[in-house]
Amino acid sequence: MPFVKQHSTSELLKRNEQQAIKRPDGALLQGVDAEEGDETGLVAKGQGYNDPRQDAMMNMMSQMPQTQRKLPPTDLVMVFPYKTDNRVKYGEAADEEEYRALRQPKEWEKEKMERWKVTRTTTCHSLSDSGLVMMLYYSRDRDEVFVRIAADPVHLRQVAEMTRYKLELKEQYLQAFAEYKNDYPGRREINYSDRIVVSHLYKTHADSKDKADAYPQRDAIFRPVDRIRIVDHIIRSGDHNCAGVDVGQLLHSSDILHYFPLHDQRALDDMNKDWFRTFVTARDIDKVRNYFGERIALYFLFMAHLFQWLVFPSLVGIALCVVELFAQTPDNFTSFTLCIGLGIWSVLVVHFWRRKANFHTQRWGTFNLKPAPEPTRPEFYGVSRINPVTSRVDRYYPWSQRIWKVIFSYAVIIVALVLLFFEVAVLMALRHYFSKSGGRISFQIINALVVELVNFLFTKLATKLTELENHRSYTEHSNHLLAKTVVFKFINCYSSLYYIAFFKANSHLFGMEMECVNNDCLNDLGSQLAIFMIMRLTLQNMIELLGPYCIAKFKELREGVAFQTSIFSNPATVMPDLSRPEAEAKREEYNVFEDMDEVLILYGYTILFVVACPWVPFLSLISIILESFLDQKKLVFLYRRPFPLTASHNEPWDTAFDIVGMLAMVTNGALIAFTSEAFANWSHSEKILLFLALEHCLIMLRTLVSTIFPAIPQSVRLLSMQQAVIVHRHVNLGGEEADHESRASAMLATPQPVPHVFDQDEEEDW
Fold first, then answer.
1. In 3-state terms, what secondary structure has residue 434?
2. Higher pLDDT pick, 88 / 575
3. From the DSSP assignment, how many helices (H) and strands (E) are in the chain?
4. What's the angle, vertex CA 731, arms to CA 729 and CA 735, rounded to 5?
5. For 334-391, what is each residue's pLDDT tens digit?
6. Rounded to 5 degrees, what are φ and ψ at 734?
7. pLDDT mean over 751-764
8. Sheet holding 144-150, edge to edge
9. Distance in angstroms (rounded) separating the CA atoms of residues 16 and 40
10. Which of the four pLDDT bands, split at 50, 70 and 90, describes residue 439?
11. Short-list 84, 122, 83, 370, CA closest to 246
12. What is the dihedral of CA 206, 212, 214, 216, to 10 degrees?
């Protein structure tokens, strides 16, 4: 297709769609005819997919007026490289010499573009043969080919039944999740007595733009995340009516540049309008779950749980600060009460979060989620082999090769930890010099900046080491990355605070005598902790938001300049707008690991030393609101839409938060017993007994709470069993065995009359 001057890509796309819909045979083309084998066609129905019901539907669509016909909504986008440089002459570029100054490709460029063409054509043919709907078009500077992929309702239902995809049932069936089944018409030779109709059981999800009383569409039983997951399965799987495209390998070899779900702007606007209710208080968390999947929904649900549980400690902490300020009492006289209260709080917060998570995962149908094979990471490499489980070709990397890389990684981590301890010791020595010269606050700011810088550098190092270990799945990669970062960051973030709290008073470092401000280390500890919190509240969040924004703007500016100066010889040519998929392809990928890591550090600052700084929970409350707001903005405006991952829990993060809670219980108890002025006159043995008594009381409380309020609530267990019975009765059997009318309704059969009861047995006596 020749390039048209002064037309936006969206206008060209709309015009091409209108022209393509005129084809009655279901093949929508852009450029040359697809029958000639050119990969730039727009395919509406795979020619290799043979289904009478789909053929009937396509014939009906071909007979409809053009204004009433509509392509299925795009679910996924696949981006192929087309040319090595936008100034290279290739493909249909010969027809564009009037407007563009293109050069002849070099030999290696020509070979690479031809290889890309073969891969692109093969992949598109596989997608077409699987029955997917595709739309192919060039990028703005014509160096990439974008493929918008969707599936028609009939195909979605067939694959959902084949994969036993679970869908939500209606409210009268307790909103249970059951494997999707198509209606079975029955066999004629037995008078259709085995007919089963279950389509009316599944809940329909009406589009917000449709009228409330409108008849639901054929694919209304599928949520947006359901469509994405099923279409992704069709693309990746080698099952019947699936394409079997190894997306991970193609991304690894750069034969595919991007592969991502397309954003729905109306859903984003809806969530952005009610961001506080949706992302902070999680009252509309189902919107997040239906759009981003359960994994990201659990993250924001956990943030909302922290927000709700921090309200009371924040009010109590502020009240205690006011009491200490106006009562003119000795410093930290309320520390004992605060220690007991926050000890109980840290014991309960994660436990009751698990109860809340189990309640929502039960409602979302992932409570009893069985482990499923994860897609291979694009960065994973290995040798091709026949998988002994699936009997298909996949990539394999033996553990005997990975073990040496793991050993190397942890050797580097040990060296980094040694350097970290030396760096902390140097900082503590510098603190002494700054304190003598009156620059205590200046040093605390420098210390906070160094901590954040070291965290950033070590995160990059740990990521590189984890990439070197070459883990196949995202879960394995995340678990190994967390194992590396949690210990290092704990020491980096909190070592200076532990030193001030327990070791600074009456100690020596590098021959210098250390002392606290006004001989009260808790005041010094509170000051440093406040600087850490303020630094994360301001600088860290500013970088987190402005970083992706500046990167996106820089990419947009650089591409715009390159497009205007390098492609067109006429400087007056109007630069067309980017299409929506192309604009989203320029964005960065979202990783929930980074946000959970930040919240874990914030959680540690909140509860580890709360005795020294009672108002820290209030500052954490503000941080939680701001963090939720920024994360929401990043997901909506700055990042590509992530794939909706299912999840039945928030592990391993729940365990990490639980461990920090137990450490906080021990730390605050030790602060009360050994450093607080309230027990300064007690002997050392009496302080040890006090510490042990506090810890044993809190441990007993934790055990008691776990017994009375189990992690899986009784209501969740009961509802799970009730839903299993509902699914067994109404989906698996088409009606309860003992319920004659219910079974007849499900089978669309006429209920038989009640059998007549005779007065006596008419059979002959024996």
1. helix
2. 88
3. 23, 12
4. 45
5. 666 777 777 788 878 988 999 999 999 998 988 887 777 777 787 888 777 777 776 7
6. 70, 25
7. 67
8. 133-138, 144-150, 76-81, 258-261
9. 12
10. low
11. 122
12. 20
Place of tokens 């730390």: 667
Q: Look-up: residue for tokens 């040496």?
A: 404
3-class DSSP assignment, residue 540: helix
Residue 147: pLDDT band with limits 50, 70, 90? very high
Three-state DSSP at 439 gives coil
Q: Considering the chain, what is the average pLDDT of its residues?
A: 76
Contacts from 703-710 at CB under 8 Å and sequence distance 24+?
A: 705/347, 705/348, 705/351, 706/351, 709/351, 709/352, 709/355, 710/355
Peptide bond before residue 52 is cis, with ω within 30 degrees of 0:
no
DSSP result, 460-499: HHHHHHHHHH--SSHHHHHHHHHHHHHHHHHHHHHHHHHI
Q: Is the dihedral of CA 267, 272, 278, 279 positive or negative?
A: positive
**Dist CA 350 CA 35 (whole Å):** 60
How far apart CA 69 and CA 61 sit, in angstroms, is 6
Residue 302 clears pLDDT 90, i.e. is over it: yes
Answer whether 705's CB lies under 8 Å from 343's CB: no
> What whole-number distance in Å separates Cα of residue 653 and Cα of residue 152?
38
Q: Is the sign of the CA dihedral 456, 462, 465, 471 positive or negative?
A: negative
Q: If DSSP codes are grouped into helix, strand and coil, which group holds residue 184?
A: strand
What one-letter code names the amino acid at 660?
Answer: V
Q: Report residue 615: phi and psi, to 5°.
A: -90, 5
Residue with tokens 């160096």: 143
- Given a contact cutoff of 8 angstroms between Cβ atoms, the answer to whether 500 and 529 are in contact is no
Q: Sort strands 383-386 and 177-179 into parallel, antiparallel or unpaired.
A: unpaired
